Amino acid sequence: MGGLARVAFGILSVMQTLSSFVGGAWVEGTGTPVELHDPTTEEPIAACDSTGIDFRAVVEHARTTGGPALRALSFPQRGQLLKRLSAALHEQREELIEVATRNGGCTRGDAKFDIDGATSTLAAYAYFARDLGEQAHLTDGAPLPLGRTPRFSGQHVWVPRTGVAVHINAFNFPSWGMLEKMACALLAGVPVIEKPGTSTALIAWRVARIIAESEVLPEGAFQFVCGSVGDLLEHLDAQDCLAFTGSAATGEKLKGNANLVRRNTRVNIEADSLNAAILAPDADAESETYGLFLANIALDMTQKTGQKCTAVRRILVPADRVQAVRDDLVAELGRVRVGDPGERETRMGPLSSRAQFEDVRAGIGRLAEVADVACGGAEPPHAPGWFVSPTLLVAREPDAEILHAEEVFGPVATILPYSGRADEAAEIASRGGGGLVVSVYADDPDWTESAVRGLAPWHGRVWIGSERTAGQSLPPGMVLPGMVHGGPGRAGGGEELGGLRGLEFYMQRTALQGFLGFLEGRFGAPAAETAETAEATGSA
Q: Do domains 3-271+496-537 and 275-480 have the same CATH topology?
């Protein structure tokens, strides 16, 4: 094994028992722990268990201690907490990268993508908070006259809810996924209970240790459950909320939880989606747009070993160019070295767990029933370890339901031919039932506009690549704190981030009706509010 991957910081030198941080203390479970593994060697490296935790007490601690302490602070003061958390985590960046390599199978680049995404999102929300003023609310629009004169008017405001935010996070981004939710909730004034994905919980646990040891947050504002959530959801009520990232199937079960339905507890789901990349007919093989298309798809397929909710799964190509695109993508993917993520030359490591490894291999087999494998395949390129090669397929049956209904959550994508018409591309993409992001590569503005109008109702984000953005744009798989992340239908039907829009899930919009002077004096916009902030909050 490569030296980098096996150089152990103290935290990795022995088998770790991962505890939970609840009620202001670290607590070990009393049941049978679940083992976590190094996906490169398959060796067990940690175990977690939350059996015996009193989840009613956990919720009450957040409500009665953490919530009041956060709401006693102004938005800028909460923003300073986020800034300090970002700095505390950044100081431990090298250790966290090592943990991500050992527990997540991440290359250094993939580990930085997760960890730096987490700290930069905290810093971004600290920045968003600067000009919000000392008031305990956010305004939503200008006052609206309601009577014969403006004396009797109405004003919409956002105020913090008095409950707790439960975050059930995915395994693929144990740092970023947890902290992007936390940033919005804490800035809104709502305490959090974080539950990481089990297979990569060692990374999340180390992040949680740094947060707790920093003593930046008020008591009860942050709690961390390492293991099953037990009966936690049964103790939530109308002021609480649940945000989940993971599979569509699990999201459906959570939405149907009887207590959450009965209490009308807010639920936000960000689920898997069959994201598409669409090549327009005008993007010829010599154009910068086409080069951008190839580079982004290769990155999307291999970054985090394809274990990204924003990764491209379907590649729509004009029918007369399928062979050429196939050959070019095979060449791009052939330059990706798969192996020990601790070796500098490695560009793609293993899948994060045995379950992921088995699911991806089985999924490739099902796709191969309706598509030809151009490169890669289900056969592991290395042993031991949970490795799968970058796998590109070309659809023999582009209308086959499996291509538009099943996501293989790994380094796998399928080329689908289409006529080249924008309306047809949008219709094919919509067969996925709703996506997080769709990327379009085109230079013809009329074609692009037609495609965007057809794609937008089915996607949370439409990324547009052209010669004008080549060399300037961030890749479509990048989730940015200033833009909404989420999507309709299969993608979960929810939203996260989007600047200050991300706070709205944790706040209550209330219509105030009364004397205009009182409304403007006590609930108006702060004097320091800028046009940028007003636009972000929706009050412009």
A: no
Please write the tens of the pLDDT for every residue from 317-346.
999 999 999 999 999 999 999 999 999 999
**Residue indicated by tokens 């505890």:** 19
Fold of 3-271+496-537: Aldehyde Dehydrogenase; Chain A, domain 1 (3.40.605)
3-state class of 1 per DSSP? Answer: coil
C-alpha–C-alpha distance, residues 358 and 39, integer Å: 13
* CATH match of 275-480 with 3.90.180.10: no
Selecting among 106, 309, 332, 495, the annotated active-site residue is 309
The number of C-alpha atoms within 13 Å of 215 and in the hemisphere containing its C-beta is 0
Beta bridge partners of 462: 438
Q: Which of 505, 460, 539 is nearest to 183 (CA)?
A: 505
Report d(CA 491, CA 204) in Å as an integer.
24
pLDDT value for 3: 36
Q: How many whole angstroms separate alpha carbon 392 and alpha carbon 412?
A: 6
Task: Please give the radius of gyration of the chain, using alpha carbons only, rounded to the nearest integer.
Answer: 24
Question: Is residue 12 within 8 Å of residue 1, measured between CB atoms?
Answer: no
Catalytic residue (choose from 98, 180, 270, 332): 270
Q: Cβ contacts of residue 399 below 8 Å, gap of 6+?
A: none
Torsions phi, psi of 319, nearest 5? -55, -35
Residue 30: closest CA among 15, 21, 19, 42 = 19
Distance CA 283, CA 467 (A): 9
**Residue 476 buriedness (CB in 10 A; 0-12 / 13-18 / 19+):** buried
What is the tens place of the pLDDT at every residue in 416-454? 999 999 999 999 999 999 999 999 999 999 999 999 999
Whether 309 sits among the annotated catalytic residues: the reply is yes
Domain ranges for the chain, please list them: 3-271+496-537, 275-480
Strand partners, 465: 441
**Exposed (0-12), middle (13-18) or buried (19+): which is 421, by Cβ within 10 Å?**
middle
Which is more confident, 197 or 6? Answer: 197
106 is catalytic: no
C-alpha to C-alpha distances, 530 to 73, 80, 537, nearest whole angstrom: 21, 19, 11
501 within 8 A of 538, measured Cβ to Cβ: yes
Residues 318 and 281: beta-carbon distance below 8 Å:
yes
